Amino acid sequence: xxxxxxxxxxxxxxxxxxxxxxxxxxxxxxxxxxxxxxxxxxxxxxxxxxxxxxxxxxxxxxxxxxxxxxxxxxxxxxxxxxxxxxxxxxxxxxxxxxxxxxxxxxxxxxxxxxxxxxxxxxxxxxxxx
Length: 129
Prior knowledge:
The chain is mostly beta strands.
């Protein structure tokens, strides 16, 4: 059912629940994210962080747990420029789930796994760059 008066939605920002916000934020910085804000750095440690990469926002919140399951409930898909160069810069530093490859749906992609088990796919439209 469509509301009588539609609201213009601007963006959706994924929130990942992790056991150690500080460690997760530091790891995401190593793959190109920037920490914008942090909260709750009291006795329990850092409880929340907002990160960005380009137009992408990501929130990290305490209370999650790592997983060794093949896939998690949420995967991140990051639209990237120069995906070949990004792959070359990350491949020796992260866990690769899927090597750089051209898909049948027009993307050039690779997939990594963060320290908590979440998959991050970096993709570039083969028609760009």
